[in-house]
Amino acid sequence: MAQRQQDQIERRLRELGIHTRMLDGHRTLLGSLRVGPAPFETLDGSSRRVKTVVFSTVGPDRIKCLRPRFLFQLPLQKILDCHSAADLESRIRQAWRAHCERLRNTRAWLSSLGADPEIADNESLTLPIDGEDQATRVTWIDSHRLVLPGSGPLSGIALEEAEDRVLRLARTSVASGVDVEIAISERLGALARAHAQRREAEFRHNPYEQAPLATVVDERPRRVLLVGPRLADGRAYAESLRLRGYAVDAVRTFEEALAATNVVSPELVLADMQLGRSDGIELVVMLREAGGIEDLPVVLVDSTRRPARRQAAREAGAAGYLVHPLDISKIAPNLERMISAPQRRRFTRYEKRLSVRIAGVEQPGLVTALGRGGMFLATDRDLQSRRVHRCVVTLAELGETLRVEAEVLYRVGGAAAACRGVGMRFHAFPNADEAVLIDYLKHLDAKSAGLGQVL
Question: Which of 305, 340, 375 is the last residue before a domain boundary?
Answer without folding.
Answer: 340
